[in-house]
Amino acid sequence: METHVRIVGGVLLLALGACAHHARGPAGVPPSDTVGWRTAPLGAPAAAAPGTSAVLTRVQATPAAGYDRVAFDFAGPLPAYRVAFDGAPPRSCGSGDPVELPGQAFLVVSFRGAAAHDQQGRATIARRDIRLGLVALRALTLFCDFEGDVSWALALPRATRFRVAQPADATRLLLDVEHPH
Question: Per the structure, how many domains does the chain have?
Answer without folding.
Answer: 1
